[in-house]
Amino acid sequence: MTWDVPLTGGCQCGEVRYRITAPPEDVFVCHCTECRAQSASAFGISVYVVRGAFHVTGDTQSWSRPTDSQSITHCHFCPVCGSRVWHKGPPDDPIVSVKGGSLDAPPDLTHAVHIWTRSKLPGVIIPERAVQHQKEPA
């Protein structure tokens, strides 16, 4: 997958904006119940970028939750409109998970990896050749 950087995005009201200065590492379509709840949709889209290439303007609030892999995810959102913008793991994790719907130009999901497919909603069709994992890959 090729990306034209920089990528830009932000929250729904525009209070929080970001710029990504390196191509993303990966794109995941997550069908878990947590991602469905946070996106209020059939799945969540996560665009993995190197933390040092992710530059934010505007203040966010965050809340943290445990993950199935026994880690903690820190979820950042706009305090004005409530839009979820990105997640990050522990301080030593070099990756930030940008919420795909927050990008100004939507991501191409052609080669996205589908995870937690055992939880996908009936009727959601995953491309035949897509990489799929029943749970979260190691």
Could you give a quick summary of the protein structure above?
This protein is mostly beta strands and 138 residues long. The protein has one helix at residues 33-39; strands at 7-10, 17-20, 26-30, 44-50, 54-57, 61-66, 72-77, 84-88, 95-99, 113-115.
Number of helices: 1
> Helix-strand pattern, N to C?
EEEHEEEEEEE
Described by strand count, sense and barrel closure, the largest sheet is: 7 strands, mixed
Helix content: under 10%
Portion in strands? 35-45%
Q: Could you explain the architecture of this structure?
A:
The chain has 138 residues and is mainly beta. Helices cover 5% and strands 36% of the residues. The radius of gyration is 14 Å and the shape is globular. The relative contact order is 0.24.
Task: Considering the chains and any ligands shown, give keywords for the structure.
mainly beta, seven-stranded mixed β-sheet, globular, single chain, 1 helix, three-stranded antiparallel β-sheet, 138 residues, 36% strand
